[in-house]
Amino acid sequence: MTHHFARGLLVLTALGLSGCMAFSPDGGMTTVSDLTSQTINKDVAFVRTAEGAEAVNATVRRLLARTLTAETAVQIALLNNNGLQAAYNELALAETELVEQTLPPNPVFSISRISGNGASEIERQVVGDILALATLPFRSDIARDRFRQAQLRAALATLRLGGDVRRAYVRAVAGNDIVALLTDAKATAESTAQLAVKLGETGSINKLDQAREQVFYAETTADLASARQAATSARERLARLMGLWDGGLDFRLPDQLPPLPRRPQALPSIEINAVAHRIDLQIARLELTALAKSLNLTEATRFVTLLDLAGISRRTQDPEGPPFRERGLDVQFQIPIFDGGEVRVRQAAETYNLAFNRLTERAVNVRSEARDAYRVYRSSYDIASHYQREILPLRKIITEEMQLRFSSMQVDIFALLTEARQRLASLRGAIDAKQKFFLAQSDLQTAVNGGGAPASGGDTSTTIAAAAPADGGH
Predict the structure, then answer these.
(1) pLDDT tens-digit profile of 295-341?
(2) H or E segment at 136?
(3) Using CA atoms, how far apart are residues 10 and 217, in angstroms rounded to an integer?
(4) d(Cα 16, Cα 152) in Å, to the nearest integer?
(5) Which helix (H) or strand (E) covers residue 327, if one does?
(6) What is the DSSP track for 6-38?
(7) In this structure, what is the dihedral angle of CA atoms 149, 151, 152, 155, given to the nearest 10 degrees?
(8) C-beta separation of 39 from 449 below 8 A
(9) Bridge-partner residues for 127, per DSSP?
(10) What is the CA radius of gyration of the chain?
């Protein structure tokens, strides 16, 4: 009987092995690569070998040799950021859990020997976890859903990094533009302040006008120092996101942001697109599916959490007679006297309800975020375009007219300088408006694909009550 049981256990194990997963060559990166390519048209790389690292370094060096655009900065980050590589390592770890969950439980073999007064007894046992083996297909199915979630989380981390890099790039370039503007303004203010001092010494201007010019120079100097500090910090943040070491910190950025597009995007179906494509929503849906399967498995195994079957073979050596063998079975199962599984079923049900409410809340928030992101995008475009089409051209006309009047001695130098200060404020406003537009453009892309900052209760996995532990409940 023991031999029959052992053979039967081996047959069941072989059947279980027929559905086992094997490690994929790319560690599950195909899904991440496809989503990244479709969403932001960028390449990703999971660096696992020295050859792969050298290929990535060569690509990064080639991209850094040119003046960076937002697209090249994002590509460098996706290849070179070690935090993103750590997210891919987590994906590889998730694959090991998937493979582990598809393997049948190992049978346990034990042997014992007892002797005394010339007699001896040898007992052998082969123990198999029947419950774990029976529930293997269901647990494997849940594990595949979990692995799919891990792939989407890796893709979400990739898109989030891309969005962070775009925003950091916009702030760094806008910071350089402000520094250049204030550097010129400081030079002009310094000349004006020196002229005011000389005119004050001759009594041509009073102390009030002299103090006004000097305080403008002092304020411009302070503004320039603050702008330089902000631009340096923005550049350092961009360097961190791109994962640059000392050798790559001398990267070049353009002097100013690119021009505005001719017309803004028209996205009448942005809510539908966001609900369909948001990766955090896809993760939440998979979570709900896995929890539903876990709930069904918990209900099916609520009364039995332990079912072990052992084949026993015993050989007894008696000094007064010939040796003899005994064979039999040993069955272990848990009697649901005090706990009939109600606790586990209630935990699984409430966890499912929690995930359902979180998913519903997330879907509502996604629609609202998409609408708000598009409104901000359109309004920021209109404001930035208004500066470019209306305010700056008018400021240019005013400057030219004031210079003509100054040349014909219709206005004095201080009226000209007052207009210069007003023009400086308009130029700063135009740079700020353009920066806000490009940031809003990045946020709009984020609102559609889900690559922004994680929302509360968004894509984090919920721990579920295990329906049938892999160890059979021991």
Answers:
(1) 777 766 665 565 566 667 777 777 777 776 777 776 666 666 656 66
(2) helix 136-202
(3) 88
(4) 28
(5) strand 324-333
(6) HHHHHHHHHHHHTT-----TTTTHHHHHHHHHH
(7) 160
(8) yes
(9) 108, 310
(10) 35
Helices (H) and strands (E) in the chain, counts: 13, 4
Angle at alpha carbon of residue 402, lines to 397 and 407, rounded to 5°: 130
* Helix segments in 301-412, DSSP class H: 342-386, 392-407
- CB distance 438 to 256 below 8 Å: no
Side-by-side strand order, sheet with 307-317:
108-116, 119-129, 307-317, 324-333
For the chain, give percent helix, strand, coil, nearest 5: 65, 10, 25
Q: Compute the distance between CA of residue 14 and CA of residue 34 in angstroms, rounded to an integer.
A: 35
Contact between 178 and 231 (Cβ < 8 Å): yes
Residue 122 and residue 110: Cα distance in Å, rounded? 11
pLDDT, tens digit, for every residue of 220-246?
999 999 999 999 999 999 999 999 987
Q: Which residues of the chain have pLDDT under 70?
A: 1-21, 118, 128, 130-132, 247-248, 299-311, 324, 330-341, 451-474
> How far is CA 238 from its chain centroid?
17
**Residue 367 CB neighbours (<10 A):** 17
Give backbone dihedrals phi and psi of 116, rounded to 5 degrees, phi first.
Answer: 175, 140
Handedness of CA 362, 368, 372, 378 (dihedral sign): positive
Paired strand residues for 311 = 126, 329
**Distance between CA atoms of residues 396 and 407, nearest Å:** 17
Distance of alpha carbon 177 from alpha carbon 427, whole angstroms = 10
Q: Quick check: 148 and 156 in contact, CB under 8 A?
A: no
Q: Is 195 exposed, middle or buried (0-12, 13-18, 19+ CB in 10 A)?
A: middle
Q: What is the pTM of this model?
A: 0.80
Residue type for position 130: I
Angle at 415 between CA 412 and CA 418, to 5 degrees: 150
**259: its two tokens:** 């021009």
Burial class (CB in 10 A: 0-12, 13-18, 19+), 65: exposed
**Distance (Å, rounded) from C-alpha 249 to C-alpha 253?**
11
